[in-house]
């Protein structure tokens, strides 16, 4: 049965003119997030000071590599940009094409234990899930999604999960190797529907796999983070306070949430302590 998690503290870390995305935290406790149409990647240091860290055309999902470099989906450049730990642009990890297929709008990404990158290409009806490895290999992992969005691996790395926004569901596929599906994509979970029936009030966005094996889903128009168990069953809901909830970052006892009040803005970043 669905229940509300007890939220002890909701703290606004930042208010901005732009809708926000892509929250990640590095090993030093610095929080980074993106602003899409703002074109700015922000940094908030452990003391709470916020600064402009880097710039891109339309920065979206973000991942920090073991060496401290950042990979950032640039939906406005059909690529994934690489930035050094100092915010300096180092080039594109992938751009315009993956495995010979044109890219439209890379949205979010995650890495496997081998350093390979899975990412979503978010377009309506013909969206793709893609992969590129450290050896230069490229593969299309899935096709014909209706706006694939958030992406996450299971804790053992053997299963991939993708939020299919315009069908309000989470899809999954077993993996037999890096970037290699073991079978067909299957519906893993349908998410709660907004009572209005308006599809825009649903739209699962960013997703994260917790160490506890639970999948956390930023549910765009539902003003919530939905929490699903290992069987895809809804077990909890957290109200975020953002009419449009875009993405999240999981920390011990805390969830960092991005989103806003409209697109292209305004937006913000919040800390929800459980």
Automatic annotation (TrEMBL):
Keywords: Hydrolase. InterPro entries: 6-blade_b-propeller_TolB-like (IPR011042), SGL (IPR013658), SMP-30/CGR1_Lactonase (IPR051262). It comes from the Bacteria. The keyword Cytoplasm does not apply. The keyword Signal does not apply. Pfam families: SGL. Residues 20-252 form the SMP-30/Gluconolactonase/LRE-like region domain. Signal peptide: none annotated. This is SMP-30/gluconolactonase/LRE family protein. It comes from Chitinophaga pollutisoli.
């Amino acid at each position: 049965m669905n229940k509300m998690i007890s939220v002890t503290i909701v703290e606004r870390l930042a208010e901005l003119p732009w809708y926000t995305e892509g929250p990640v935290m590095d090993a030093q406790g610095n929080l980074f997030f993106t602003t899409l149409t703002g074109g700015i990647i922000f940094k908030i240091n452990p003391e709470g000071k916020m600064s402009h860290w880097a710039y891109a055309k339309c920065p979206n999902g973000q991942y920090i590599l073991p060496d401290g470099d950042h990979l950032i989906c640039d939906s406005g450049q059909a690529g994934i940009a690489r930035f050094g730990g100092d915010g300096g642009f180092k080039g594109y990890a992938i751009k315009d094409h993956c495995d010979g297929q044109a890219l439209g709008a890379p949205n979010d990404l995650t890495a496997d234990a081998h350093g390979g990158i899975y990412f979503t290409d978010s377009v309506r009806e013909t969206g793709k899930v893609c992969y590129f490895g450290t050896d230069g290999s490229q593969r299309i992992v899935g096709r014909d999604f209706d706006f694939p969005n958030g992406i996450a691996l299971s804790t053992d790395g053997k299963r991939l999960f993708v939020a299919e926004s315009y069908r309000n569901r989470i899809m999954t596929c077993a993996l037999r190797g890096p970037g290699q599906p073991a079978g067909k994509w299957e519906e893993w979970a349908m998410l709660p529907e907004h009572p209005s029936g308006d599809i825009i009030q649903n739209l699962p966005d960013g997703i994260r796999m917790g160490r506890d094996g639970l999948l956390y889903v930023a549910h765009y128009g539902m003003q919530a983070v939905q929490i699903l168990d290992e069987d895809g069953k809804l077990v909890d809901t957290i109200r975020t306070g953002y009419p449009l909830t875009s993405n999240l970052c999981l920390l011990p006892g805390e969830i960092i949430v991005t989103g806003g009040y409209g697109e292209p803005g305004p937006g913000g970043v919040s800390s929800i302590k459980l």
